[in-house]
Structures are given as C-alpha cells and as structure tokens.
Amino acid sequence: MNFLTEEDLLEIGLDAHFDPPDFKSFSNEENLTGGKYVTFFLADKFFAVAAEQVAEVVQMPHLTSLPKTPEWLLGIANLRGEIIAVVNLPKLWNEKAASVSPKAKLILLRSADNSVAFAVDRLSEVITLKKKEIHPVEAGNIPHLLGKATHSFGVLHLLDAERICSGLRL
Questions:
Q1: What span, in angstroms and rounded, lies between the C-alpha atoms of 161 and 54?
Q2: Contact (Cβ atoms closer than 8 angstroms) between residue 121 and residue 101
Q3: pLDDT of residue 15
C-alpha cells in the first residue's frame, strides 16, 4: 500500500490544516441574501447552502484516506482528474458523526481560492428563500452558520460555503 508523503500533500495543495477564522469578524447580516438554496440532511439536522456556491452534486466516489490528517478529512477523491478534499462536516464541528453511508452524496463547493466537497446523508430539494425569511444566528457549535430559516421539515440551518472553503486552507 502506498501512502502519500507530506511532499505529495503539498504538491496537490493540501496541508490538511484547519485554522478557524475569527468568526466574530464576519457580519452575518451583510451576508444574508435571498435566493435558491440546495437543502440536505446531516444526521437529523436540516441544512442548506446557496445554490450559487455549489459547483455540483455527485455520487460518493472512491475516497483515498491520508495518513496523519485530522478526523474531519474523510480523504481525497479524483473527480474527472481534479483532486478534491472531502470533509466530514459534523467531525469538523466536533460533533458525533455517523459513518458515511453508501447512499451519501458529495456537494462540491468552489470558492475563489479552492474547491472542497462534503458528504451529506441525503439531498432534499432546491428551494427559494426570500431575504426576510432568513434570520441571523450566533456561531455557536456550528461556526459556518450564516443564518436560519423555517421550512416544512423544521429549522433550516444555512451554511456559508465561503467560510467552509477558506477556513480549511486547502
């Protein structure tokens, strides 16, 4: 079995390090916008991310785990020749996470600087939210929260994909 060395990780631009930014410096009020959101479930919680921040949704590919990386990094995947880091969000938030099911999907996010994917238990739907339906929240246990909204499934936690991508320094 071949393991990637630290030099290999640096070559693909992955240092597997998480430096949480100073979330108090972000103003959720300024970032709250209406629009289309991709909704999904992680365990029993209902989440959404702005559709404009989602590059694509794919079936769970084969993941290659990496030695000496944090628990929240599930591994890396080759998506049509591009190496993508795959994150387990509950582990990133220091929450108990179930194992990733074979039916899991990946939501691929692209920011100005990098790409990252995270596993979701199941997709729900694409919804449209008006700005007045979204309420700001404190960071709390989930530092990547942008706001909350009410939906037929219950409380919808809106994630900020840009914070997720930039916080991981991939």
A1: 8
A2: yes
A3: 43
